[in-house]
Amino acid sequence: MLNYIWVFLLGGGILFGIANGRADEVGEAIIESCGNAVEFCIGIAGITAFWCGIMDILSQTGAISFVSKLLKPIIKRLFPETVSNEKAGEYIITNISANLFGLGNGATPSGIGAVTELQKEHIRLSGDTGTGVASDSVGLFLVINSTAFQLIPSTVMAILASSGSVYASKIILPVWIVSILSLLSGVITFYISKYMRRGLKNIVRGRGGSRH
Fold first, then answer.
1. Contact between residue 86 and residue 53 where contact means Cβ atoms under 8 Å apart
2. Angle of helix 63-78 versus helix 86-100 axis, rounded to 10
3. What is the C-alpha to C-alpha distance for residues 161 and 168, in angstroms, rounded to an integer?
4. Are the beta carbons of 154 and 51 closer than 8 angstroms?
5. What is residue 44's predicted lDDT score, i.e. its pLDDT?
6. Residue 19 — φ and ψ, nearest 5°?
7. Could you read off the pLDDT of 133-176 as tens digits, one per residue?
8. What does the pLDDT read at residue 135?
9. CA distance 4 to 10
10. DSSP secondary structure of 169-206
11. d(CA 22, CA 12)
12. Which pTM does this prediction carry?
């Protein structure tokens, strides 16, 4: 679907420029943009390689493993399914650790694995099959994953630096503040909606039982 949107926007822009008698300007803009795109990719490749190297050093020195050990008790508390399904816990810890150190691409496979294992364990424990509704743990994980806190926002810093910004590193503190606030508000909202939903279910069940 996204490919169709891009084609529509690109084709529409070119046709609009030609219709307004600016075909030459459109052609020049396309050529200039292609050159800028190549320069941008080369610039961001070097910066990304630098931060990936830093992350690899942190991994080899045991920093990521240390963070994983700190997260393990919290993960078991937030996601009860991980007590009986260690694989789900490993996926969650890997995902959060990857996001924490700015390795967004590395977090995707573990995120998919975490959702799969959490839902599988929920079905096994509750016997709730065929509903197609995500479990509470899956919902909470998606909230945490979407509001991922990053110690080093390497991707954004790389984009800013490759675009010529001399203040790329200045975003670290604001990113920490925004990430913490969004994480807290997301988790709080999740639990409020969870208990409200349970309360509504209990009310509906009580009304249904009183009719008999």
1. no
2. 130
3. 6
4. yes
5. 67
6. -65, -25
7. 778 888 889 888 888 777 777 777 777 877 777 787 788 888 88
8. 82
9. 10
10. GGGHHHHHHHHHHHHHHHHHHHHHHHHHHHHHHHHHHH
11. 14
12. 0.64
Q: What is the mean pLDDT of residues 8-19?
A: 82
Provide CB contacts within 8 A for 149, sequence distance 6+. Answer: 99, 100, 176, 179, 180, 183
Name the nearest CA neighbour of 76 among 63, 66, 85, 67.
85
The radius of gyration computed from the CA coordinates of the chain, to the nearest angstrom, equals 23
Q: Measure CA 107 to chain center.
A: 8
- What residues contact 106, with CB distance under 8 A and at least 6 apart? 98
Residue 122 corresponds to which amino acid?
A: H
Residues 124, 135: Cα–Cα separation, whole Å = 12
Structure token digits, residue 103: 């390795």
C-beta of residue 140 within 8 angstroms of C-beta of residue 117:
no
pLDDT of residue 165: 79
The phi-psi region of residue 210 (left if phi > 0; otherwise alpha if psi is between -120 and 50; otherwise beta) is alpha
Do 18 and 26 form a contact (C-beta atoms < 8 A)? yes
